[in-house]
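Sequence in, structure out.
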Amino acid sequence: MQFKILDPNYEQRVRDSFARQAAMALIGASMTRVEPGRCEIELPVREELTQQHRFVHGGVVRMIADSAAATRPSR
């Protein structure tokens, strides 16, 4: 699917919107890629973010997925 870019400043607007998410800053997530129809967020794994079996907690993974899927420029 080809995305038509309506706002030539969309990437900066998306990055600015992400930067306002205090929860992402709290867990140490960073937005590493923004393209039409694509967003990547990375998270360094730390013990504080793991569950009892030492995997990153599902709630943390869901936070990142939610932000990546719903990140859009604010109006």
